[in-house]
């Protein structure tokens, strides 16, 4: 799962990022909320986690801005504000969940997984001999699990979510690496590795259009 964390408290931001990464979440942390909208132009996330009380742009304003462009990505509000009216405002603006500080780290991960399941009700997809389980980040070929790196998993997940259509190098780069300076050769290397692990012909290529499964 790929998470965008928006938290201006650097100590908490570092702690949350380290914990989420240790639990297997791909996590991008932004401490300046003014950077969020530009980042969302080039990267896709499974869940957005954001604080309310931040400088420059308040959390409520940020939720509104995100929802004007993105109606689907779940938003979890992480804040010290506990009043019902604050919760009501966030939910009416488009937030999907609300967790008050202080909180247990495990509760945060449980909520993130629940939001992901709601967004992706079809948790298991089977294509020919390949079974993909999104919540467990697991891939099986003929019933046997295959080992995937985080980047390989994200690429395969993106292809399966878009099964039936070709996705370009640029789309894959934006989803997996965001604004990191990574070239198309890196994508090709990961596709080559995936092809070694998956049945022959599972990932199809069309010159000028990209890759497709299904």
From TrEMBL:
Q: Which SUPFAM superfamilies match?
A: C-terminal effector domain of the bipartite response regulators, CheY-like
Q: Which organism is it from?
A: Thermocrinis ruber
Q: What Gene Ontology molecular-function terms does this entry list?
A: phosphorelay response regulator activity; transcription cis-regulatory region binding
Record's CDD domains? trans_reg_C (cd00383)
The 4-aspartylphosphate modification is found at 51
What keywords appear on the UniProt entry?
DNA-binding, Phosphoprotein, Transcription, Transcription regulation, Two-component regulatory system
Report any one BP term from Gene Ontology. Answer: regulation of DNA-templated transcription
- Which cellular components does GO assign to this protein? cytosol; protein-DNA complex
* Segments forming domain Response regulatory: 2-116
Q: Which InterPro entries match?
A: CheY-like_superfamily (IPR011006), OmpR/PhoB-type_DNA-bd (IPR001867), Sig_transdc_resp-reg_C-effctor (IPR016032), Sig_transdc_resp-reg_receiver (IPR001789), WalR-like (IPR039420), WH-like_DNA-bd_sf (IPR036388)
Q: Which residues bind DNA?
A: 122-214
Domain OmpR/PhoB-type, by residue range, is: 122-214
Q: What is this protein called?
A: Transcriptional regulator
Q: Which Pfam families match?
A: Response_reg, Trans_reg_C
